[in-house]
Amino acid sequence: MKRLIELMVNGERWDVAVQPWTTLLEVLRDQLGFTGTKEGCGTGECGSCTVLVDGQPILSCLALAVDFEKKQVVTIEGLAEKGKLTVVQQAFLDNGAVQCGFCTPGMVLSATALLEENPHPTEVDIRKALEGNLCRCTGYNKIIEAVGEAAQVGEAAQVGEAAQVGEAAQRVSAGEK
Question: How far apart are CA 74 and CA 116, in angstroms?
Fold first, then answer.
């Protein structure tokens, strides 16, 4: 039997009817349309479904939606404010840490949670914070560099600055990913 629950997603209140076994991932993607949260494995192994709940990263594929009533859920769509990327998102673009983009939302949210808790992480801290997020494309070096840079920057650079000849350029589709 379906139950009506109140979810707070990206600062907005949603009333959603769910079965007791409906996962938070299913609600976010299928009912609310937040498709930035990915389903990679459905077993909590890959981290592609990572979202923040009250500032903490959780695997939404393993979480029952009924357990998150009135909690603050943030998806990748809820990070940028008025089109301005966060420091972490910008660092991922600047460092070439976005390849296919499938793992990127989970990586960015895990990194965001880390920097909220520990603004000056070591490389070991960064690796530990991201250990539940799998990437099949990058080899992690660029991701680790991006999180380290985000920790140093403190505030995002302007989005959309063009690269000059001899400078590294961002992938055209990186921002969308």
Answer: 14
Average pLDDT, the chain: 90
Q: Quick check: 115 and 55 in contact, CB under 8 A?
A: no
Residue 73 corresponds to which amino acid?
V
Tokens 């690796």 correspond to 127
Residue 37 lies in domain: 3-78
Is residue 148 one of the residues assigned to a domain?
yes
- How confident is the model over 143-152, as a mean pLDDT? 96
Residue at which a domain ends, from 78, 99, 127: 78
| Residue 160, pLDDT above cutoff 50 | no
Residue type, 69: E
Note whether 9 and 45 are same-domain residues. Answer: yes
Check residue 46 and give its pLDDT: 96
Q: Are residues 94 and 148 in the same domain?
A: yes
Is residue 161's pLDDT more than 60?
no
- The enclosing H or E element of 116 equals helix 104-117
Rg of the chain on CA atoms, in Å: 16
Answer with the one of 25, 59, 78 that is the final residue of a domain: 78
Residue 92, classified by CB atoms within 10 Å of its CB into exposed (0-12), middle (13-18) or buried (19+), is: buried
| Mean pLDDT value of segment 130-150 | 94
Task: Give the mean pLDDT of 34-53.
Answer: 96
